[in-house]
Structure formats: structure tokens, C-alpha cells
Amino acid sequence: MEVSMLMIMGVISTVLVSILFVFQILFWATPKDMEGIPGRLGWPVIGESFSFISEFSSPSGIFTFMNKRQQKYGKVFKSFVLGRFTVFMTGREASKILLSGKDGMVSLNLFYTGQQVLGPTSLLQTTGDAHKRLRRLIAEPLSIDGLKKYFNFINSLTISTLDNWHGRTVLVLEEASTFTLQVIGHMIMSLEPSGEEQEKFRANFKLISSSFASLPFKIPGTAFHRGIKEEHLEIKAKRESGTSLTWAEVNNMPYTAKSPLRPYSFLGFGNGPRMCPGINLAKIEISIFIHHLVCTYKWRGLDEDDSVQPTLVRMPRNKYPIIVEAL
């Protein structure tokens, strides 16, 4: 149960800070482009759309759709879904081709709603020099040095958020979402953590984010008990009595913030020229929150329902209710 709750915290932070965009391992094509590629196009007009939608709504999402066809046709296969001829590519090699190629070789293709919400000049829609210029503008504020000035705010907000958890049922999904948006709202618009403006910001963000998706932030369950919890309790034990978490401690959390990964094996933040610019912010938020969480409480889930919402971002349907107990 403890692992599930931490995974949800990681998912929410990653999803929101990544701005929830769709960059899946597929690309749009024409029938002529797909000559010689294995697969099937399904029924006229509708193709394999019904199968795609049906399996998308299952707990495993489109993984089931893709896995069945990968087993039959290999790592590259064609289909016709949602009105488009599509080539699906799976595996690390495909990710490297799509994400590290020369800018313009592969273009980001948001769903129609995402295109309408963001417009043609947003970071996710631009390419070439325009895209590079926008990334340069936001690079410094989201760098490690740029984020250092927000450390005290994130640390204090984490402590006050967790203080309110004691003695009540906590819906982890709601709490994680609220916390992450409070941080982002303060950073980009100097919003206070509560109040009418913060509520408007959250409401508008939910409308916009309904057009996008992100991959989960992966925290291996067994490794958590051997690594993360031990690491954070050790940090707390070394700290002087009465003092709080410091920037130096967060920046030197090797297990939490700097876990080594094979290139292109984890795409929660993308990779290459279009890697999510909010990667450092997400890591800092998660590191601070998990530190105070595992040093303050133990918890248990209140509902064994493990069903998920049939949305692009797979989230627990019950919002994962827990009850906490002080250590």
C-alpha cells in the first residue's frame, strides 16, 4: 500500500509538470508509405478503431492493443485507427529514432483538442528555430540553479500540506494534484497556495489538461523499501534537532533524484530535443515531498479497488483514499 501511494504522488507530479502532452511511439502515414510494413488496416472507414478504443478503456490501456500486434507482426506494424493510417513503433530503438532525430524529421502531433487549446505558437506546437527560441527562454528559470530560490516555498508547502493529513481520510490523487499546481501557480504567476485566484488557476488547468497525456513516473516497489525510505530516514537522523530539510540535502539524494536509467528506456519526460523542460522541477518536488512523507507518517489504504479511470493518464478511479499515522 505504501508503494502504491508513492507511485501515485510521482505520477501526478510528473503528469502536471510535464504539461501533459502526447508524444506516443507512433506516427501518421499514408497507404503508400506503409507498403511492405506488416499489420492490418481493419474494416473500411473504421479500421481497427473499435478495438483501439475498447482496449484503451481497459486497465492496461493501449498497451494491450499494441502488445497483441507486436507479438504477431513485430516491433513495427501498421493499422488504421481514429481516422488515420498509423505506423506503431515499439522499443528503445524506436524511441531513439523518434526523439533524438534532427529537429523537423519527426514532428509532434497533438490531438485536435490539444491543438485548439494551445494554438500554433506554443512550445509543443513549434518546430525548428521557433522551438529552440522558446526553450531558451524557459531554460534558466527551470534549471537547478533557477529552482533553488523556490526551495523554501516548496519545502514549507510540503510541511503544511502533510500537517493537514493527520486524523482524516486523504485522497492522494487530489492532494498530489493540488500540491503540484500550488507550486506551479506560485512559480509562474506568484499565486498564493490558497484563495480565489488559485482556485481559478486549478479549474482552468484541469480544462486544458484534459487534452493531453503523460507516462507514469516509475518507482520500483521492492527498491522503495530498500532505498528511498532508508535514504530519507538517514538524512533526517544526521540533521541537527529542530532544523528542516536543506537544499544541499535535496540536491544530494542519489537514490531519489538521480536514479540511473538506460537511455530511451523511460520516457516519462521524453528525451532528445523535446525533453520536458520541467524535469528538474518534478524531481525536486517529488524528492522534497517523499522525504517529509516517509519521515512523518506511515499509512494504509482504505479501499482495495484497483480499477483505473479510462483516460489517457491512468489514474486510480477511487483517488486512492488512505489514513495516515504519525511515526
Automatic annotation (TrEMBL):
Cellular compartment(s): Membrane
Record's keyword terms, sorted: Heme, Iron, Membrane, Metal-binding, Monooxygenase, Oxidoreductase, Transmembrane, Transmembrane helix
TM stretches of this protein: 6-30
Pfam families according to UniProt: p450
InterPro entries registered for this protein in UniProt: Cyt_P450, Cyt_P450_CS, Cyt_P450_sf
Similarity comment: family membership: Belongs to the cytochrome P450 family.
Protein name: Cytochrome P450
Upper lineage: Eukaryota, Viridiplantae, Streptophyta, Embryophyta, Tracheophyta
